[in-house]
Design a protein that fits this description.
CATH superfamily of one domain: Dioxygenase LigAB, LigA subunit
Number of strands: 0
Helix content: 55-70%
Structural class: mainly alpha
CATH topology of one domain: Protocatechuate 4,5-dioxygenase, Chain A
CATH architecture of one domain: Orthogonal Bundle
Length: 129
Amino acid sequence: MPLDKPYEDIPGTTIFDADMASKGFHLNQFCMSLMKAENRESFKADQRAYLDQWPMTEAQKEAVLARDYNAMMALGGNIYFLAKIFSSDGLSFQYAASTMTGVSEEEYRAMMLAGGRSPEGNLYTKEGS
């Protein structure tokens, strides 16, 4: 019997639960491999070939190549593991978060300094957001 997951109805929110962990297992293992310098070098030398060593879905591989962090999260990626990718690219968490929110890094920084994103519209879909 599937668990009731009321959090699946929150627009713009991806919850990393046991099902997502299972879905993204190989994607997250790939990310963790980037903790080793020799693996980062292999990945940078030929990203597709390195990704093809992992039993990830094609959609997961394409999301990594496109650096589409929202897609990676939807495909089971955990942001703390995905950080290994943008860190390997020499990018900050702030930069990656800005790409996920659709604003520039400067706009993201200003938004966070002003207290974060407005909760307006972040209701359950069934509540009529």
